[in-house]
C-alpha cells in the first residue's frame, strides 16, 4: 500500500511538471545566431583552457549544471552569491563545499560581455559549458538549445529537497528525477556523469563502512581500494573534505567504467550502488548492465538525457528574468 502511494505521488509530480513545461517558451539552436554568433566558440575556447589546466574542472562544471537545473530549472540561480537581502543556493548544506568552478563561468562570461554585452545569459553559459566539459574529457557531443534567462531568485530550501543525496535510496532518487520530468532511464544515464570527478569523505563514509564489502566481489583490487578509502576517511569522523574518485579506474576520462564498477559492487556512493544492488531496481539493474556492455548506447542516452535536463526551464524567468552582467549578482 505504501509503495502504491509513493508511486502515485511520483506520477502526479511528473504529470504536473509535464503540464508546466509544456507552456514554457521554446529554446532554439540559433537563438544567438545574429546577436552573438561566436558565443559557443568563446565558451569552448575557455573550457579548453580550463580542462587543459586541470581535467577535474570538467566534473566541476557538469556538477554545477546539474545542481542548477534541479532547483527552479536551469536558470543560473546556483551561481548567485548571498547578499544582505538575498539568500542563495551556494551555502545550502548540500552545495556548501561541494560546488566548484564558479571562476570558470566568470571568465567565460567576461569574454562574452566583451564580445556581445548583455546578450548571453549565465544559464546558457553554464549549459553550453557542461556540454563542452563532457566532450573535452572524452564524452559525447550534443546540440544545446539556448535562449534561457537568468533568474532573479534562488531557493536555499529546494537544494535540500530536490537534489539527490549521496545516501538516498532508489525510490527517493526516482521521485526526485521524476519531479523534474526525467525518467528512470534518464536517471541511470545521467548518473554516469560520476565516471568523472571526486566525492568527499562525508558523502561516502556510510558506504565504505557499510555494505561495500558485501556488494563488492571478493577480489584483491576491491579489497585494496576499500583499504585505501578507509585510510583517508576514518569511521570515527575527521577528514570530511578528503576526496576519492567516484570512478577510480579512469577518473579523468568520460567513459562507461562507472557502470562496470557498479556491476562489481564498487560504487563509491550508496546512491550509485543502489542503481544496481537495490531489490527494487529491476529496471535500473538492466540499464546498468546495458551501459556497462554497450558504451555507445550509454553515450547516446547520456546526450539525449542531458538535452532533457538542460530544457528544464524556469517559467518565471520569461516574465521577470534577465541576462546578468555578472553571474554572481543580479543586475541593479
TrEMBL record:
Ranges where the Plant heme peroxidase family profile domain occurs: 26-331
UniProt protein name: Peroxidase
Disulfide bonds: 36-116, 69-74, 122-327, 201-233
Enzyme class, first EC level, given as a word: oxidoreductase
Residues annotated for Ca(2+) 2 binding in this entry: 195, 247, 255
Organism: Artemisia annua (Sweet wormwood)
Residue sites binding substrate per the record: 164
GO MF annotation terms: heme binding; lactoperoxidase activity; metal ion binding
EC number: 1.11.1.7
Entry binding sites for Ca(2+) 1: 68, 71, 73, 75, 77, 89
Catalytic activities: 2 a phenolic donor + H2O2 = 2 a phenolic radical donor + 2 H2O
GO cellular component entries: extracellular region
Site positions for Transition state stabilizer: 63
Amino acid at each position: 500500500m505504501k509503495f502504491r502511494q509513493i508511486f502515485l505521488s511520483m506520477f502526479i509530480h511528473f504529470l504536473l511538471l509535464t503540464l508546466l513545461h509544456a507552456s514554457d517558451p521554446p529554446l532554439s539552436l540559433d537563438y544567438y545566431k545574429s546577436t552573438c554568433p561566436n558565443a559557443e566558440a568563446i565558451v569552448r575556447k575557455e573550457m579548453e583552457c580550463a580542462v587543459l589546466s586541470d581535467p577535474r574542472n570538467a566534473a566541476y562544471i557538469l556538477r554545477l549544471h546539474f545542481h542548477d537545473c534541479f532547483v527552479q530549472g536551469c536558470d543560473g540561480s546556483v551561481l548567485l552569491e548571498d547578499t544582505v537581502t538575498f539568500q542563495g543556493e551556494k551555502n545550502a548544506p548540500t552545495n556548501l563545499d561541494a560546488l566548484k568552478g564558479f571562476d570558470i563561468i566568470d571568465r567565460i562570461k567576461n569574454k562574452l560581455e566583451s564580445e556581445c554585452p548583455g546578450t548571453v545569459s549565465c544559464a546558457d553559459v553554464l549549459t553550453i559549458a557542461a556540454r563542452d566539459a563532457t566532450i573535452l574529457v572524452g564524452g559525447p557531443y550534443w546540440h544545446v538549445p539556448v535562449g534561457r534567462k537568468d533568474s532573479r531568485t534562488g531557493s536555499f530550501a529546494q537544494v535540500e529537497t530536490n537534489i539527490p543525496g549521496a545516501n538516498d535510496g532508489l525510490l527517493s532518487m526516482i521521485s526526485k528525477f521524476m519531479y523534474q520530468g526525467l525518467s528512470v532511464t534518464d536517471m541511470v544515464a545521467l548518473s554516469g556523469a560520476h565516471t568523472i570527478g571526486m566525492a568527499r569523505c562525508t558523502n561516502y563514509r556510510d558506504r565504505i563502512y557499510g555494505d561495500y564489502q558485501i556488494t563488492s566481489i571478493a577480489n584483491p583490487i576491491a579489497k585494496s581500494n576499500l583499504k585505501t578509502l578507509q585510510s583517508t576517511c576514518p569511521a570515527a569522523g575527521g577528514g570530511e573534505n578528503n576526496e576519492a574518485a567516484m570512478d577510480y579506474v579512469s577518473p579523468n576520462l568520460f567513459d562507461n567504467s562507472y557502470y562496470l564498477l557498479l556491476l562489481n559492487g564498487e560504487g563509491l556512493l550508496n546512491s550509485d550502488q543502489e542503481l544496481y544492488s537495490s531489490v527494487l531496481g529491476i529496471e535500473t539493474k538492466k540499464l546498468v548492465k546495458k551501459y556497462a556492455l554497450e558504451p555507445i548506447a550509454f553515450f547516446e542516452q547520456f546526450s539525449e538525457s542531458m538535452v532533457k535536463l538542460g530544457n528544464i526551464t524556469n517559467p518565471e524567468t520569461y516574465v521577470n528574468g534577465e541576462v546578468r552582467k555578472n553571474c554572481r549578482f543580479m543586475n541593479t
